[in-house]
Structures are given as structure tokens and as C-alpha cells.
Amino acid sequence: MTSNDYVIQTQALSKRYGRKLALDHLDLRVPRGRIHAVVGANGAGKSTLFRILLGFLPPTAGSAQILGRDSQRLTPDDRGRIGFVNEEHTLPGWMRISAVIDMHRRQYKRWNEQAFQSVLGHYHVLPEQKVAQLSRGERAGFNLALALAQGPELLVLDEPTLGLDVVAKRAFLESLMYSNATDDCTVIYCSHQMEEIERVADNLIILERGRLMHMSAPDDFCARVTHWVADIPFKGPDPQTVPGLLQLQRLDGLHHYLVLDQDDDFAEFLRASGARSVQSMPVSLDRAVNGFLAKNHAAPAQAQHA
What residues does the ABC transporter domain cover (predicted)? Predict the structure, then answer.
């Protein structure tokens, strides 16, 4: 793939706040097309990465490109190619909805009225209302409609459903998934909500301590993590000797092992360790990601790519 095939490229990207290293020589390439989910624990460096990519913050070292441009030298035309929706859904509260729409229509040369109306149709937003009169869910939907209507090549969504109730979250996700406007742009979706990631993401990017830990399709990542339940009548094997161990829990006399990259040989390992019975259980994306992050947060590992 050439550099034009990537919407985001970073090379040895680092950002330091005093003694804290928020991004640690991050090498990341995100290909054009589809919806890419960025996940990680608090402090993984996600917000810092976005701020650098959007040109709001300079890196300490390394480089970052977005849509083939140096993120620190973005022009107004470059910014017009990037849509951005954050968790605050910041819009001028004193302005009427009609005035905000007119302002955006004038500002963006590629304005797509059909895309705007198709998204806004999911929400009860009236032209005469002021932004301050909208609910948080309505502001989120209005922001998404504005971002997609500008005809972006790249849409960055940073925790867009944070603080929304269940109904508002569903409306937001449906308006994103069923908008034809997303067919022509790449979406970067950052969220702590794994059920959202499962619904929308084609590619899963896991960051931890400012480094890339994993990138693959969500289903491929889930396939790497397995949950085993073993009836072991005594203490069981030393956790240090358990291959691929992410988490160990003892519940109701049973040992629960969450492990990475283990096949049926793991069952034989448990039987050899004294297990009277062994059972494999399905793992959700939420369980797989949280187990992986918990392990790597305690003891950072090398980046793993599918």
C-alpha cells in the first residue's frame, strides 16, 4: 500500500507532559475506508493522539499525518476534509438551529444536503430552536448531521455517545450506520462502550500506555481470546506457568481462565494440572478487550498485529 492508501500515519510519535509519556514512539497506519474503532484504558493516549492528528497539539517527537498532510500544517481546505464530533458536542448555545445550518452550508464547499437531512431525520430538531434548547442526544445527532453533510473524507468520532441515555445512543448509532454519507468516508470511532464497537466497527485498534498493542477485525481478536472453566479440587497450577493467561478467577470452587492464543492443548494442560473437568466458554468482545487491557496495563507487552 502507498502512503495515499492511509488516512492516518504516525511514525515514532511521542508526546510528553512533564515526566508522563502519553504517546510512546507510536507507529500507526490506518487504511482508507470502513469504520475503525480505537479503544484503550483511561490514559492510553487516545485523546492526545486525536489532538495531535487534528493539529490542536504539537508532538514532542516523531511525526503524524492525516489524509496525507502533516497534522501540524493543516490548511482550512484540509480541515474541510475532516469531520469531527466529540463528547461535548460543542456548538454556540445562543444560535438558532437554522443559523448554524446556514453557517455550515456557506463554510463547506462539498455540503451534502441529502446526507444532512437523512441524519437529522432521526431527531426532533426544529429550525427555530436554539442550540441550548436541545437535549444532549439531539445535540449529538445535530453534530453528526453537520459533520457528515460537509462531505468529509475522514470522520473522527471521539466518545460521541458519552452521557447519552440508551434511546439516544441507539438513535446515534443507527443514524451513523444507515447514513449513505459514510460510504464515501473513513470513520475513526473512539469509545469505551464495547457493545457499540461490536455493532459498528470493521477494524479494532487497541492502544495502551501510548503504544499500539493490537490491530485486527473485532471477530479475529475475539477468536484469539478463550475462556476456560476447570474443576480443580486444590489450588491449581501456579498462574506464572499458565500459558497465555490474561485473567484468573476462582468462583464457587471453579477456576476461570481467560487466555490469549490458546487452542485445545490448553484443556490438556488443565487436565495435567489436576482438573477433573474442563469446559470452554464463548467470550464477548467486551470481556476479551478488558481482559487484554487489564493484563497489559499491569505488564506492558509488545505490539501484536493480526
Answer: 8-234
pTM of the complete model = 0.88
Structural domain that includes position 231: 221-305
Indicate whether 201 and 67 sit together in one domain. Answer: yes
- Residue 116: name the closest of 128, 129, 130, 102 by CA: 102
* Dist CA 71 CA 52 (whole Å): 7
Same domain, 208 and 229: no
Question: CB within 8 A of 268, min separation 6: which ones?
Answer: none
Q: Are residues 210 and 225 in the same domain?
A: no
Q: What pLDDT was estimated at residue 2?
A: 60
∠ CA 233-239-244, nearest 5°, is: 115
Task: Identify which of 198, 212, 227 has the alpha carbon closest to the alpha carbon of residue 285.
Answer: 198
pLDDT higher than 60, residue 249: yes
Per-residue pLDDT reduced to its tens digit, 32-61: 999 999 999 888 899 899 999 999 999 999
Q: Please tell me the total count of domains within the chain.
A: 2
Average pLDDT over residues 14-20: 93
Q: CA 218 to CA 34: how far, in whole Å? A: 13
CATH classification at residue 146: 3.40.50.300
In this structure, the answer to whether residues 52 and 127 fall within a common structural domain is yes
pLDDT for 123-163, tens place per residue? 889 999 999 999 989 999 999 999 999 989 999 999 888 88
Domain match, 172 and 278 both: no
Q: Do 109 and 207 fall into the same domain? A: yes
Q: Determine how β-strand 211-216 pairs with β-strand 203-208.
A: antiparallel
State which of 94-98, 113-117, 171-175 shows the largest mean pLDDT.
94-98
56 Cβ partners below 8 Å, 6+ apart?
Answer: none
Please classify residue 105 by burial: count the beta carbons closer than 10 Å to its beta carbon, then call 0-12 exposed, 13-18 middle and 19+ buried.
Answer: middle
